[in-house]
Amino acid sequence: MPDTLLVNPPLSSPLHPQLNLPLLKAYLQDDGFSTRVVDANLRFFKEFMGDFPRMEQQAWDDNPLSLLAYYNDLEKRLFARSQDWEGLQVGLRSLGMKHDRVYFDSVLAALDDMAANPFIDFWDRLIEAELADGGARIIGIAITFQDQIIPAYTLARRLRLHRPGAVIVLGGQIITRCHDSLVHHAGLSALSDYLVLWDGEEPLLALHHRLLRGDATADITNIIESRTGQGRIERTAATPSRGIPRPDFSDLDFAAYLLPEPLVPLQTTRGCYAECAFCAIPFGSNKYQVRRAEAVVEDILAIQEQTKAQTGRPATYFKFMEDTSSPAILHHLASLIIERGIDAKWETFARLEKAFIKPGFLDHLYRGGCRKIHWGLESNDPAILLRMSKKVEMSHTNAVLRASAQAGILNFCFILVGFPGETDDMREAMTRYICENPDIHTLTISTFDLTRKSPMERTFTPDNVYGLECVPATDFQVRLPYLVEGENWKERIVPAAHRMMIEIVRRRPDIGFVTLFPDQVRAMLCDRYGNDWGRVFVARYGSENVSAMLLDTERYARDYLSKREIEPVALPEPLKREHLRTKEDMAVLAQAILSRKLYERRRIEQV
Predict the structure, then answer these.
(1) pTM (2 decimals)?
(2) Class of residue 319 by CB neighbours under 10 A (exposed 0-12, middle 13-18, buried 19+)
(3) What angle do CA 496, 501, 503 make, to 5 degrees?
(4) What is the pLDDT of residue 282?
(5) What is the tens place of the pLDDT at every residue in 498-540?
(6) 544 C-beta neighbours (distance < 10 Å), count
(7) Of 18, 115, 214, 524, which is most buried, counting CB atoms within 10 Å of its CB?
(8) How far apart are CA 229 and CA 232, in angstroms?
(9) d(Cα 410, Cα 22) in Å, to the nearest integer?
């Protein structure tokens, strides 16, 4: 039996494995602690859907459009199965439940609600099969996404019942960002023994030395005792002393995931060297770290051997799961892949830096395997970019996107609508910029959130330059309720984002068509058909799909504006996820505004 089980709970994408636990497993095993990773997320999907057909590699090779039908069928199966539970909506990348995952008391209530929580029976079966008495002493549970909160705490509750002697350790982005409120809730705190903050390798290893080897001197900085809330917190103290490890995927079967061919997550860097005002993602890491390009190449070669043994074909596609890649390491990595003749294609996340427009730079990345880059474009307005602290110039942005497109790379742009100070004219200019820019191949539109642990939230003062009013974060709130200059800003900008989306899909059907495909396959299609495959596919056989998407989007925008009840199963997958998130945010905001009005009324009555 292993010393430790590391569990990835539902719900995250079942299309490919997550990277976090294979990194932890490698770090622990390098120090002699036997560890096993359990991808309970994938197991849940397969149990929940029952006997479902797998999409064969040949079908994907012959007709990539068959993937849309396959995933639509899976979504329908998930929706139909969800009807067996009260208030449940399970999607491939989304989870809606009767109980609100944002509030501690609501999460606690979900843990015993057999009629609404399918994870109770699921965990009982899994514990009986694999986590019974006599097993691992330490069980680590990762909570990276909000959709994992109720499933993860359901597991913790079932472990307390069936494995009372196990040490339960929680970690991940949600725990790191919400620990300061979590430690004050006795009910949830009783369900774990320790909370691990920020990068987990070093503190979790130290905890193993304390608990399993009796080393009282092990430095457990960034470990909190759940019941007491005590622990030494120092964000920059616990970076992996041996650097970012090589992930150990040996417990996972790449052939079991729902993509027709493997997509393997890796890291070239961790954290971000920038600090955009609205972004909390870099807060999840101790500091910016860069992995040696030579080590990344060795990772790729080792994984190709493993996947060839499992599936008969070495993995070709890799996704660098980081906040921001360094241009220097990407260039070095491409050089090594070219020199060694490795068949590896990859995608990454990057800032629109001047370094990328050096002549031949992006052509070199393409030759070295780069097929897609996620760019943080956000806005094309210089004044808004300045308020965001983006520290990029539009002249560089245009040049980078142009050079990347000319090199053959698919440009994915993140767009942020409604940053405080943004006007209707700015949004219209942004819409024109997107529609008229052939170098933007696909995008995602998000509306502004005041995000917990972002610089704007951490440095918040009532007299801030953004005109923001907010209620301090509580419970599992990741997106805070806020007003701008006394206005319900979110209520205003969501319809504005809908109008932008409709206009973009109308004028750029290729962008609309690309968004129908799971993000995980877009680089694969770029590799096969070129980075202009959206236009190629629309011209060949995509007009019906785009028309249907446009009609669904327009209907959704009308229903949202008129406050009609919306049936999520009828929405395209990207719209469904955004709708569920917006619905949750609006409920939180409405409650916060009501609380403020009640407070003001009480103050008036007191006076």
Answers:
(1) 0.88
(2) buried
(3) 95
(4) 82
(5) 889 888 988 898 998 888 888 999 999 999 999 999 998 888 7
(6) 8
(7) 524
(8) 10
(9) 28
Instruction: Indicate whether 235 pLDDT > 80.
Output: no
Q: What is the chain's mean pLDDT, rounded?
A: 87
pLDDT of res. 601: 38
3-state secondary structure of 193: coil
Pairing of strands 482-484, 468-470: antiparallel
Residue type, 329: I
DSSP label at residue 90? E
DSSP secondary structure of 13-44: -SSS--SHHHHHHHHHHHTT--EEEEEHHHHH
Q: What is the mean pLDDT of residues 326-352?
A: 96
Q: What is the mean pLDDT of residues 271-280?
A: 88
Whether the bond into 207 is cis, omega within 30 of 0: no
Kindly tell me the sign of the dihedral angle through the C-alpha atoms of 384, 390, 392, 398.
Answer: negative
Check residue 602 and give its pLDDT: 36
- Cα angle 142-147-150, degrees, rounded to a multiple of 5: 75
Helix orientation angle between 543-561 and 489-507, rounded to the nearest 10 degrees: 160
**Cβ pair 138, 2 in contact under 8 A:** no
Q: What is the DSSP letter of 229?
A: -
Can you tell me which residue has the tokens 């806005």? Answer: 379
- Which pairing describes strands 482-484 and 345-350: parallel, antiparallel, or unpaired? unpaired
Residues 59, 55: Cα–Cα separation, whole Å: 7
DSSP 8-state assignment for residue 323: S
**Residue 205, token pair as written in the block:** 């290893």
* Closest listed residue to residue 347, CA positions, set 251, 281, 265, 405: 265
- Find tokens 């009324």 and name the residue: 601
* Mean pLDDT for the stretch of residues 98-115: 96
User: 572 pLDDT exceeds 60?
Assistant: no
Q: How many percent of the chain have pLDDT more than 90?
A: 60
Q: Compute the residue count for the chain.
A: 607
Instruction: Say how far apart CA 373 and CA 522 lie, in whole Å.
Output: 11
Q: What is the mean pLDDT of residues 469-490?
A: 90
Helix segments in 135-292, DSSP class H: 149-162, 173-182, 186-189, 201-213
| Residue 584, token pair as written in the block | 């949750």
Q: What is the average pLDDT across 207-229? A: 88
Contact 213, 248 (CB under 8 A): no
